[in-house]
Amino acid sequence: MKSAHEFLQHYFGYSEFRGTQAEIIEHVNAGHHSLVIMPTGSGKSLCFQIPALMRSPKSPGERPPITLVLSPLIALMKDQVDTLQAKGISATFVNSSLSRKDREKRYAAVARGDYCLLYVTPERFRKAEFLEIIAQREVKLLAVDEAHCISEWGHDFRPDYTRVAEFRAMLGNPVTMALTATATLDVQQDIVRQLGLDVAEVRTFHEGIDRPNLDLRVEEVWEADEKEESMEAVFDRWLTPDSKGSGIVYFTLIRTLLEFSERLQAAGIDHVCYHGDLDRHVRRNIQDDFMKGRSRLVLATNAFGMGIDKEDIRFVVHADIPGSMESYYQEIGRAGRDGKPSECTLLYDQRDLNTQIEFIRWTNPDAEFCERVYHHLTHSTEQIRAFGIEWLRERLCDRQRHDRRVETVLSLLQRHGVIQDEIDLSNLIVEGGLPESLADEEGRAAKLLRDQKKLYALVQYVQSADRRQFIREYFGVA
User: Fold this and answer.
1) Whole-angstrom distance, CA of residue 304 vs CA of residue 437
2) Counting C-beta atoms within 10 Å of the first and last residue's C-beta, which end of the chain has fewer, N or C?
3) Is 180 helix (H, G, I), strand (E, B) or coil?
4) Quick check: 113 pLDDT over 80?
């Protein structure tokens, strides 16, 4: 049997593993569970991809064990699978982006034993046809990517991730690996608990969070003119005609992004814009142009980034303060993946805090508001089907145009499987009761307080004399 090093060289072209990768792979191959915390770009995925390859078919017609990867985003898994397939690795994904015909073809191939790696979202476990197919394969390794999504203490909680212990039982309790770049001590403990495992059963591999090649900067600015000047200074440092590489400028609001796009156009600075209001195909083309170097500068909301594995991003600028240290750290982690010097600049205008405070309020509606939304969904179904989300918002938000609490509750209900699509309500069907977590007044208040504290931590980061040490202490690796 080939060694892990041989698979590494043959498929990925590296002569040596980084950090604890080899130790993690050995640990997994010995049948032990693990929690892997590595900085973005450090090669977490190799820790489950190599073991999957080592279990791949040895002869035609053999149906080997399969490695199942839970991944939160459709775009993220597609990029990873495309990269693996380009290397000749038998990987695929099944998600809602596929037509029924394509989905059935992939299911048939999975049942035959054609793949050693299968990527799905945790929501796929709601589908009876998936459960039927995966029951025909021996799942030897379950990899839970972006594992902070498991925890309600994390910054991107996904309700279906809380069912991972149930999924493990369905799959015969395979060896399980949870992977993330960002997890405080509370989140680490919650991840292990949500996996249905005891702390003593799980070895944590923590490679720290230091990225020495990243120059962490904070510039206090006042109003748009100063922000633009600071941005252009960054561009002048990194986007020179004789240099290579690219950069990202993150914005909180689409309207602010578009305002600065007009300013940069007037200044003759070439760039593209990426945000959630663009058509899916337009977003995909913009991402492809950026990945292939045809566009060197992108102005984006945080909708841009997951799945962006580009080595030569030389700078990440935050034009507005992000909502949490976790989000900030994940976003700056896209810079300098090749290990070369890169810049991460946060433009801090204290007034921008008001926007984030509003966002936190919108994303944390209280239990009474959640109950009111659910009541309308169940008692005014025909009106909602006919007149949509605006009709619902008018009755719940006192005509406040920017209030997005209704969208938050609809999204949470969709994630819990109560409704199918939080955007298109024309075929609204309510398929369950109000989830207990949304009706829990104390729990909702605690979640709001946690998110407020996360934002306050960023203010402390701005004011810190040693920002690297602050990050280490925040994530519990001081």
Assistant:
1) 29
2) N
3) strand
4) yes
